[in-house]
Design a protein that fits this description.
Elements: H1 7-10, E1 14-20, H2 25-37, E2 43-49, H3 54-60, E3 67-71, E4 77-82, H4 89-95
Parallel strand pairs: 1-2
Antiparallel strand pairs: 1-3, 3-4
């Protein structure tokens, strides 16, 4: 699901922002994994364009694409994980979810 100003309020369950850049091979590999494997039923991954969302990057302390940020229902920070060195959804699930 792509990020919008209303998507956080419109989704239930656990929410994770995925800071993605279309030019990033690691981001594209992770996205391909997510699409191939699917998501756990209670998880929503919200894809945030790394280049055009500087305010969100600053809010959550994101300095590198491939960063995943867990947020609560109000969009407040809970935790983050950078998948740059092991760009697979399996690594994200194992080390973060």
């Amino acid at each position: 699901m792509d990020y919008s100003d209303t998507v956080i309020a419109q989704t239930s369950g656990e929410k994770v922002l995925f800071f993605h850049a279309p030019w990033c091979p690691q981001c594209n590999a992770i996205e391909k994994d997510i699409l191939a494997q699917g998501l756990p039923e209670d998880l929503t991954v919200i894809k945030v364009d790394y280049d055009s969302n500087q305010d969100l990057r600053q809010k959550y302390g994101v300095t590198l694409q491939t960063t995943f940020v867990k947020i609560d229902d109000q969009g407040e920070f809970k935790d983050k994980y950078v998948a740059y060195n092991e760009p697979t959804f399996d690594a994200v699930k194992r080390d973060f979810l």
